[in-house]
Write a structure and sequence with these properties.
The protein is mainly alpha-helical and 636 residues long. It folds into 4 domains: 107 residues, no CATH class; 210 residues, no CATH class; 123 residues, no CATH class; 121 residues, no CATH class. The chain contains 25 helices and 5 strands. The strands form 2 sheets. It has a 3-stranded antiparallel sheet. A two-stranded antiparallel sheet has the order 1-2. β3 and β4 form a beta hairpin. The longest helix has 32 residues.
Length: 636
Amino acid sequence: MTTTAPQHESPPAPQRLWSDILTTPVGDLLRGRIGARCRPRPRDLIATCGLPAELASLVWEVVRRTRLWSTEKVAVSRELIAHFEDGLAVGTSAAELGVSFGDPAQAAALIRRAKRRNRPLIWKAAKLAENAVAAVLSLALLLYTIQVVRLYSHAPNITRNYVSEWNQDALTVPPAERAWPVYLAAMQATNGYWEHNWHGDELSPGSSSWPDITEFINSNGRALELYRQAAAMPKIGLVLGREPDVDYMVNNAGQPIKNAGAAPDPNPEFISVLLPPLTTFRSVSGMLKVDVYLAAQAGDAQRTQHNLDAVFGIVAHAREVRLMLADLVALTIAGDACRTIGALLRANPQLFDDHQLAQIAHRLAGLGGPEGLRTRFASERATVEDFLQRYFTDDGHGDGLGRPELLARLAVFTSGDPAPTRWTPTIGLNTVLMPAISPFMAGKREMLAKCLDFFGRYEAEAATPLWQRSPTTVDDEFIQFRTSLRNEVRYAPLMILMPSLGRAGLMYEYFAQQRDATTAALALALYHRQHGSWPQSLNELVPQLLPQVPPDRYDGQPLKYCLVDGHPLLYSIGVNRKDDGGRLPSPPPDGTKTPLAELNRQARRWQPAPTAQRGAGAAMEKPLPDGDWLLWPPVE
C-alpha cells in the first residue's frame, strides 16, 4: 500500500470547534455533546491504535471508501483495528495480513452494504422516498424532453383564410352597387352627434328628450334621405378586414376614420378584424324610428312607410354581414320596428291605406328570407377554428399541441393588455412553460371536436321552438362544463373564446313571437276596416288576411286573442305556461315600483319548465311570473 495513515495535527481551537460542530451527529448536538470530546474520530482512532503504518493506511483507506456516517466509520475502524491486532497477535506479519485482506474498495463496498442494511427503519423510509422523488423527477424530465421534441418539431399550418372566405360574397358586388359608401356619405352629412338611446322609450313622442330629438332629426333631412337611399340598395357590399378602402372606425362625432397604418395582412386573424358598423346600424334605425313618428304626426303615410322600409333594409344589410353579433343587432332592430308598427296601429289606425298595411305585413313576414332572422353561429365557429389553426401545431393528421404564443394570446383576451406584434423565438417564460402545460391541455383535434359539439347543440337548440325545448338547456351543460377545474386547464382556449350562447338563440324566439303578433295586428286592422267590428277569433282572419293563426311560442297552440272592453288583445301565455286571460304579472310583493313594460318583459323571459329534477327552487333562475306576455297593443 502506498497510502500512508493520516497524521493527526490539531488545528487552531476556533477551526477545531467549527469542525467538531459540523461533524457531530445531530443527536449528540441535541444532547450538548460536540465532536471528539464525546466520540473519537476515525482519523484519531486509527492514528493512535499502534498498528503498523501499512495496516493503519489500509484501515483508513477502507474506512474512507465506505462513505458512512461518522459513528459508523468509528465502529468500522474499531472492528478493522481489532481484526488486524488479532492477526498480529498470532504471529502473522503485517504484509501477510494486508495481502490476505484483499481489495480495499471491494471490502469497503461490502462493509457499506452491511452497515446500511442495519440502519434504522426511518432512514430506510426516507431513503426510499428520496429515490422515489428522484425517479419521478427523472421521469418528469424525460417526459418534458419528449414533449419539447413533439412541440417544437412541428409548426402551425395556416391553410384557410377565413376573412377572405367571409368576403367572397361582398367582393362580388360591383363597387357602384354597394350601399356602404352611401352609408358613409350619410354619416359625413350628419350635423351633430346622435347620442340618444337608440331603442329606448325616449325615442317616442312625449318623452322628456323628444323636443331635442325632433330638432336633431329636422336638421338632418339630407342625411336621413341618404340613409334611406342606402337602406334601399340590395347589397351593402361591406368587406371585412384591414384593406385601406374599407378600413374604418367611427369617432365620437360619428364620422368615419381611415386607418393610415402599415400594409394590410393578407390573412388577418379572424377574431381581430374590425367589426362592421353595428353602432351605425343601431343609431340610424333610431333616427328613422323618430322620423316614423314625426311623419305619422304629420299624416304623411308615404314617408312613414319609406322610413319603415329603410329600417327593414338595415336589418337585411346587417344580416348580410353574417356575423352572430350582426344577427343579434338585426333582431333587435326588427323587434323594435314591430313595436313601432304596433304603436302606430293603436295611435293612428287610419294612417295607412289597405294596400300599405298589406305591404308592411308582407315585408315584415319576409324579413331574413326563407330562414327568417334566426341567429347563426357560423362566425363564432370560424373564430375558434381560425384560432386553433394559428396557435396549435399541425402534425399532418389533424392534431397538434398549443404553441407558446397561445399563452400570450389568451393573456390578451383575459387582461386586455395589447398583444405583442410578433413572437420572438427565444427561451422565454412561455417557451419553457408550454411543454409542461401542453400535456394537460387538449390537443387541436380534441379541442375542435369539443367546440363543434357545443356549437352543434347550441344550433339545434336555437332551431327548436320554445314549446319543444327540453328542461335541460345547453347553457346548463356549458356552465357545468366550465366549473370543472380540469376543464379550465384542458380546454382553456374554449373557456375564453366561447361564451354561453343560449340567450343568442332565444332572441329569435322573442322576435318571432313579436313579428307574428304584429302581422296578426295588421290583419286585425284590415278586418276591422272591412267589417266595422273586431273578429271573435283569429280563425276568422284565415285565409283571407292570414295564411294561418301563428303559434304561441310557449305552448305551440294558436296565439291567444280576446276582446277586452270591446278592444282586441293579442298575448302569449308566457313563461309560466298558464293562460291568465291577458293579465300582466303582478308587481313585486315588497312594493317595489316596477314599470309595466318591465313586468311584461318578465313574462316573456324564458326559463325551462319546472320538473321533478328542476323545481321552482334553487334550480330555477327566478320564480315564474304570474301573468301573460302582452303583445299588442304594446305595453308602455
